[in-house]
Amino acid sequence: MDVTQEKLIEALRKTISRTSMLAEGNDPEIDKALQQMRLNIAKTDDVNVVLESLKSLEPHVLSFDDKRLERAQAFRNTLHDLLDVLESAPQANISLTAKKQFEANLRSHWQTISSWPGLLLQFSSLVEASLTTPTSEEKRPPSLINRLFGRKETRSTETKHSHEDIMVHICHTLAGLIQNLNLPDNYQLQIQDLIQALSGNRDIQQLPALLDEVINLVMVAVGKTQDDLAGYLNQLNKQLASINASIISSYKSQKTLSNQRQDFDSHLTQQVQETSAMANSASDLDSLKSLINERMSTITETMSRYREDMKKQEQQAAKSISQLKHKVNKMEQDASHLRSKMQQKIAEAMTDELTKLPNRASYQEAVMTLCTSARASQTPLCLAVLDIDRFKSINDTWGHLAGDKVLRLVPRQAQTALRKQDVLFRYGGEEFVLLLPALSLEQALATAERVRAAVEQTPFNMNGEPVSITISIGVSLFDGNESSEELFARADKNLYRAKTEGRNRVIGDNS
């Protein structure tokens, strides 16, 4: 073994030893196993001894993880019970926005013990606001910062680790946003620099500056779209002016043709009248014959000139019509191109870039339409909320690239269990929404179970190591009177139950 390898092994020993010290204090059995592991690593170079130490530690870690999950479930259930009690209080006036914000934070952080004080403080603020706000007071919507990080009180008690997790998620989302912007080629270097700055960034203090850069690029993209549209409208205006000139030219040609026809008629009539008058005054046959020949020659010349003028006018008219047809065809092609481009942009705006599923904006439009239709036709409509189990652990263990891979895999497998009329949306993060029209609750639960099984049975590997991917699903039946938000809230609550009751399961109304 060379010196470099010895130094590397010694560094790994120190790393394992010091890292294990960070884990002490959570469970006595784990503490004993960690101490024994440090002794074994320090005393021997035998790989088998080290592996055996790690193997003996594994069941203790799994047991501790189960206990931690049980405590987290109890904490979460308690907060939900307290929220139900608060809602049932007659004097309480709960802001729907504040309630949704609290539920969203609870759903995101109930498993992170370091976030519990912040959640309790946020619930305390919700109680205080609910019991002191008059019923007539207008509810103020949460600010962007509140939606990103929760209430101010919560932020003050969150740990640095929570801030870093939030920052990584925001940067990952912003990077995906700017990659989808339609920007001129001279901005590509700036885009690459910004993506590099966002990649893996954990410093939340840099967020305002990064947001400024992203906003500037978005404004450039919006301005480019407006410039493209203005350019097209300017081109369209020129084409319309050209068509108008062609129409005026055709009108003038038609008027000239009409005048020439009148001149020909007048001239021919005059020639005939003069011939008749001279024929009457002719004294002998020879002079009459000479007169008729002269007049016939004049009439023939007039008709020949008229035919020539008519031919020129017809050629000019045909040319004008051809030019006009070409201009109209060009306008139709430009309009078709712009229409296709606009349709493409609309489709992109309604599609999630990562999964290629309809996004949340598309869901909002579809669910209102389907609820209205179901209410009018008295046909059933079910909504399911799907959430990938332990997705944060996947991101933390394997990185965001692995997380993105899972986000693409899950909907692809889920769709194998769906009908053509069933629509799956990416709602945000690791959460998806499934609309199931014309299905009873029992049928929707059966469909959701097939979706769950399809995902669970899909093999997934990361660096050659198998990784278990499962989902939890909450299902609700539209009652015909509620809003789409209320329907989603019930399905979301069923999802919470599926999570707290062990994950990898389907929970429906009255289950």
TrEMBL record:
It catalyses: 2 GTP = 3',3'-c-di-GMP + 2 diphosphate. Its EC number is 2.7.7.65. Residues 296-348 form a coiled coil. GO terms for cellular component: plasma membrane. Residues 379-511 form the GGDEF domain. PROSITE patterns: GGDEF. Keywords: Coiled coil. PANTHER family: DIGUANYLATE CYCLASE DGCM-RELATED, REGULATORY COMPONENTS OF SENSORY TRANSDUCTION SYSTEM. NCBIfam families: GGDEF (TIGR00254). This is diguanylate cyclase.
